[in-house]
Amino acid sequence: MTPDHHDLWFLPLGGTGEIGMNLNLYGHDGQWLMVDCGVTFPRPGRVVADGTVHQRGEPPVQMADPAFIADRRDQLEGLIITHAHEDHVGAVPYLWPLLQCPVYTSRFTAEILRRKLAEFDLLHRVPIHVVDVEERRSIGPFQVEWLALTHSIPDPNALMIRTPAGNIFHSGDWKLDDEPLVGHGYAPGTFKALAKEGVAAMVCDSTNATVAGHSTSESALEKGLLAATKDAPGRVIVACFGSNIARLHTLANVARATDRYMGLLGRSLVNMSGAAKAAGVWNAEDHLINPSHLGYLPREEVLAVATGSQGEPRTALRRMAMGTHPDVELEPGDRVIFSARAIPGNEEAIDALIVNLKELGVEVITAEDADLPIHASGHPAQDELRAMYQWVQPDVAIPVHGEAEHMEVHASLARACGVPKSLLGRNGDLYMIRPVPGMRRQVAEVGRLGWERGELVRVV
Fold it and tell me: How far is CA 303 from the centre of its chain?
């Protein structure tokens, strides 16, 4: 199955009909372009007290099976990573040996990717091309332009993929945040210009398509996080996603305002902050102390940011809840703030973690209980989706990055915005954008691979 020069195809192998393990293919004139290559985690199972999830012995790290394109890797011109979240970049070290293509991405994402590749002894084998916003690159028959958008991580990019058969706007993960605090912002004129040029299809994030209104700006969280911290009698531990450098900047401001020292607990947080410094997106005023020093400070002088907001086993917050963390031992009167919301499927693990914390006498504040906002989603709500459709004006809407409900609501919203046609599908379906929009169902076998004992295994 190979596209000819008249064809413009979209084929998702992961991330359509689900949230996570994104792996997308665009086909034209005998060649393919891959966008994103991410991981996911095992399907929900029974959670026990220590946070371990039991489900039929599944591997802890899973990703889309790339067999379709691995079998055609001589036709694969390159891999673009839109941003550095695990569900978009995390599978590259596992799958690149099957693909062996050049990788294109932004500076911050490249810093994260290099750290991952080094762990697999691949750093000097994978050709990484660092690109800037508004830069254009010819990758085989595809001319790709990187466009600035905002998300909950530095330097996310949308893509304008141009071919002689037509143009595709690929949104990646995004929101419209007028004050993102860290990294580049966005300009409506960028997307209005695409409409004048003509966009055959818009492949777009559906995660929050069921949410009315507009997402909260990162800049709106400082007041809520300050209020949640300033009256705490003991230590304050904030659980958030380690990739959200803007949130760390806000928490550094809160630490200064409350005369607390800030430290990071958890490997991914330390890794992300290091990448942010190397990429030039870390505020030099945001000083961190060595995590090993946190246990020696007076409790009222500690603000620690910890991994584990989703109740994952072996993360810093889980280890503190179990009394096994080497640097911090929680005590009654300490406070844990969840500056994150549950990813669907993680609710049971988070509830079990909160029970453990409360049994220690620790006060817990979640985003749902807080009087003021202490978390902001990185994905567009309905008003943002409407704005983007009004700017880009595609001929076809292709909702992705969501479960069936999210994508169906997204498609309805696109039609209400005047988009002539929406195509709804799932992983393995072939979206034929040109010459005539349509679908062929399940043309590619799809599934999951897992990483277990140093090798890829098929997940049933």
Answer: 25
